[in-house]
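Morning run. Coffee first, then this:
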Amino acid sequence: MKKEVLIICVIISICLLVVCVLLFRWIAGKRRRGFSALDEMEGHDFEYFCAQLLERRGFLEVEVTKGSGDYGIDILAEKDGVTYAIQCKCYSAPVGVKAVQEAYAGRDYYDRMVGAVLTNQYFTTPAVEAAKRLKILLWDRGYLERMMEEET
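And here it is:
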């Protein structure tokens, strides 16, 4: 009797382990597919995706600016009384200083409290240094991923 119970416990443990492994792989694959589609977006589609994501995260008065003459700002938004000017960059390589400079100039042009750069990638070291000096928020791939995960 003890031997039969032990065998049943081992079988159940193996089944649970297999289910956990399969679930982990499914979740990891879903995440990769989500970012794969994100990485393949055109710039304007990425801007609208980010605007919708910000709205779902509680930002108000979210507006995608017109394409040309936007002074480097793609999205204007507000959250908790703080106004934002956001530059979006859908790149295949790290984002450099130019995006930070655009967010800095656009923040002042649109008279916003906070300037930010939102990207599907990461930032170069010079971009990080410039953002610190110019007080520009850098929202990288990790930040974007966390915002997307909080929705699920």
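The first strand starts at residue 60 and ends at 64. Good start to the day.
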